[in-house]
Design brief:
There is one protein chain. By secondary structure, the protein is mostly beta strands. It has strands at about 1-5, 5-10, 25-30, 40-45, 50-60, 65, 70-80, 85-90, 95-105, 105-115, 120-135. The strands form two sheets. Strands 3, 4, 5, 6, 7, 8, 9, 10 and 11 form a nine-stranded antiparallel beta sheet that branches. A two-stranded antiparallel ribbon has the order 1-2. It starts with a strand and ends with a strand.
C-alpha cells in the first residue's frame, strides 16, 4: 500500500486488466483536503439508468453520488505525467476500491460490485494533468 496526502492507495491496478467485479472493502481514510484544484462538474441522467460525469485537474474529491447495490462501471481518462490515482470511497471516507494506480497517462475501464447501496465519491489525483470520469450503473 502507498500512503500520500492522507489517502490510502491500493497498489496493483494498471488499467490493462479486463473489467472484473471488485468486492467492497473497508479501510479507514484520514480526511485531508490540503491540495488546491480546479474542477468542473457535470452530472447527467440518461435512459433507464443514471450516469455521473466529472472532470478536473490535480487532486480533488468528486461530489458524492448515489449507487445502488450491484455492478457500477467506471471509465476514467487521466493525463498526469507522473502518478495517476483514483480511489472509490463510501460516504464515511472508507476505502472501497482502487480504480487507477499507475505512472503516466491512463485510460481505464473498471467494474466494481457495490455491496451496500448509498453515497460514494472518488478521490482523484493527476499531478500536472487533468482527469475525466464517467460512472454508470
Amino acid at each position: 500500500m502507498l500512503v500520500f496526502a492522507g489517502m490510502v492507495l491500493s497498489a496493483g491496478c494498471t488499467g490493462s486488466e479486463n473489467p472484473a467485479p471488485d468486492r467492497a472493502g473497508a479501510v479507514p481514510l484520514v480526511d485531508n483536503q490540503s491540495a488546491a484544484t480546479v474542477m468542473t462538474i457535470e452530472e447527467t441522467q440518461t435512459g433507464t439508468g443514471e450516469e455521473y460525469e466529472y472532470s478536473g485537474s490535480g487532486y480533488a474529491e468528486t461530489p458524492r453520488f448515489t449507487l445502488p447495490a450491484g455492478p457500477a462501471t467506471f471509465t476514467l481518462s487521466m493525463s498526469g505525467k507522473h502518478y495517476n490515482g483514483a480511489i472509490l470511497y463510501d460516504g464515511q471516507y472508507r476505502y472501497i476500491s482502487g480504480l487507477v494506480d499507475q505512472p503516466g497517462p491512463a485510460e481505464v475501464h473498471r467494474v466494481v460490485e457495490i455491496v451496500t447501496p448509498g453515497e460514494y465519491f472518488l478521490g482523484m489525483n493527476a499531478p500536472e494533468g487533468s482527469w475525466n470520469v464517467s460512472i454508470t450503473r
